[in-house]
Design brief:
Three copies of one chain form a homotrimer. Chain A has a single domain (about 5-245), classed as UDP-N-acetylmuramoyl-L-alanine:D-glutamate ligase (3-Layer(aba) Sandwich). In chain A, about 50% of the residues lie in helices and about 15% in strands. The first copy, chain A, has helices spanning about 5-10, 25-35, 45-50, 65-80, 95-110, 120-125, 145-155, 190-205, 210-230, 235-245; strands at about 15, 35-40, 55-60, 85-90, 115, 130, 135-140, 155-160, 165-170, 175. An eight-stranded mixed beta sheet of chain A has the order 2-1-3-4-5-8-9-10, sandwiched between helices. In chain A, a hairpin with a 2-residue loop joins strand 6 (about 130) and strand 7 (about 135-140). In chain A, helix 3 (about 45-50) runs parallel beside helix 4 (about 65-80). Chains A and B meet through helix 2, strand 2 and helix 10 of A and helix 5 and helix 10 of B. Chains A, B, C: GO terms for molecular function: ATP binding; hydroxyethylthiazole kinase activity; magnesium ion binding.
Chain lengths: ~260, ~260, ~260
């Protein structure tokens, strides 16, 4: 069975510690693919949620110090329970604070997969790069080479989003083409993608590299579908959620 | 005059202490029905807002300890001013922290109405239940019986959402059918509903049980209207806001 | 070259410290006009972001005391780097806490432009006014006269939104007509406008009064365009983002 069908059947519980900008879009996107989102970032409860959830997503978009502590507790709680943990190092190169938090999380949590853009990857790998806020920015780099080094250093999968996505375990690398430039014209597509990858990992834990690639490919196809019927970023966001819901469904009717 | 007409005329000020996931949807939904939302959760000001608002909504979706304190101050401030207070115990059964916070609020604030799903009700009533994150989950229970017990214990109305909604004061119970399954496929429909019930309560304070039932029925009808013209969860959310705005309006034209 | 064309070419980095209700809409609106948003409110990093951003937006919508501190650090960091700072005093008259925070920011930061509604202006100028939560409310006042006094007192531009927008430097005043009443029926149009004004100021820094007026006029036109094709507040919000993206673009096709 394709992973997306299995995901819709099992409806994995996806725990997100995320930012105030994309929390709504991320929850709606997870619901659209068929997962069950739970957003809980309080230090008093994050690790309890992580323990029972099927995967945990750590997103540093609007980070506070106390959230870093909750992330580390959650990440370790999820891993202790054998669940995958995805780290989204939003804007890792934007400030020293962000970079330090990302490196601390990578040091203290056995992260399963790092999902980033090339600017964030460069920051983590200490490669010079012109990042721009939380966007990828510009520079020249051997993306696959750097991703492999980071993957080996932290013993995790590394997925780098861009015109062509790649995902690597440090040895093998899969490339995924497709998608649409408009995916970068709305906020939160990267953040939601990290959650979607987490949901796929929770279903396809036996072959995580392939599960991550399947998530990236599914996501790019949803972007293509949405772009076909959109007139601007406003309806693109809406059509993208629709596409995440309808793509590869046997029945396309919305009346269940 | 139907309550919705009176509500649109009086435009009650609805104070919400809510979570980062649904704050935008909740504010837009309140504007759509004709209410005036004000989201203020800082402990320095929440009770001042609650005092002048027409009702206060306490939602524990992404709770922190300091927010619990703000909720208790606000709730008591609203009640001292004779305004209704609605508690939405989001995911009350998901963690010990959430359950403890909910019970603390119910103990320290004279809550007017508790709006929950069956999983949250079970947690509050200490009934075994397979909740799943913040979703209702699965189990067998005499929902009406438990709702009545909780209503009597805390001397409040209890509204339980589901395929059939019920609302009870512990003695009488009203049932509301309708709605659409897609209402559970977007995030925040429960949270927004709690605010809508609060807005109706502020208008129909003489007969609160009936006012709450009117809110629940109005909301289910909006869901049905939205589903008729939607192709997925993306446009359902949009059409749902439209339906909250247009339902039972004399003029359907958007140009005012 | 019209400012909007220059803005789309230069894609200014707009730093926002904002509230949980509108963060998503604000980020998407900034992306739609062609700017690059970065939302960062942690005290550990806000001033670092402000230093490299092209402008900073301080929005007190869901304020905490620690956020005020971050705002003051950020505002001073931005001004030291020669970048404009826009203050949005959301609901300044709603509580003593909000008003005190606004006055503190105005005292400690060399704000470039204050973007408010008439109720918020009245609060800042200590004029009696019936504000209603975060909405403009009702009253009688010489708006232009008060705006000029505030502009001179704080040596900043003051833009007041309403059926007719005005912007003044205390000496000259520009008025902008147009827009659509539905712009007040969704949450966040004022907050997003403040960010859009900031983006225009960062491009048109030589003539800030005119740049602000250009932003206000562009925004009102987008509202008109959106209203033409909308059926309610749900699709108005979507169409408004589309209009911010497509307005004054040479090519209207969405496939880039």
């Amino acid at each position: 069975m394709p992973l997306i069908h299995q995901l819709r059947k099992e409806q994995p519980l996806v725990h997100c510690i995320t930012n105030i900008v994309v929390a709504n879009f991320q929850a709606n996107g997870l619901l659209a693919i068929g997962a069950s989102p739970v957003m809980a970032d309080a230090i008093e409860e994050a690790k309890d949620i992580a323990k029972v959830a099927d995967c945990s997503i750590l997103n540093i978009g609007t980070l506070k110090q106390q959230t870093v502590d909750a992330m580390i507790l959650s990440g370790n709680s999820a891993r202790a329970a054998g669940k995958p943990v995805v780290l989204d190092p939003v804007g890792a190169g934007a400030t020293p604070f962000r970079k330090a938090c990302v490196l601390q999380i990578l040091d203290e949590v056995d992260v399963t997969l790092l999902r980033c853009n090339v600017g964030e990857l460069a920051a983590i790998a200490d490669i010079p790069w012109n990042a721009k806020g939380v966007d990828a920015g510009e520079g020249q780099a051997d993306v696959e080479g750097i991703a492999k080094i980071v993957a080996l250093k932290y013993a995790c999968l590394v997925a780098v989003s861009g015109e062509i996505d790649i995902v690597t375990d440090g040895h093998s690398t899969l490339s995924i083409t497709g998608g649409h430039p408009m995916m970068t014209n709305i906020t939160g597509t990267g953040c939601l993608l990290s959650s979607v990858v987490g949901a796929f990992l929770s279903i396809g834990s036996e072959r995580p590299l392939e599960a991550a690639a399947a998530a990236l490919a599914f996501y790019k196809r949803a972007g293509e579908e949405a772009a076909k019927v959109s007139h601007g970023p406003g309806d693109f966001a809406m059509n993208f959620l629709n596409a995440l819901y309808t793509l590869d469904r046997k029945t396309k009717t919305y009346l269940v």
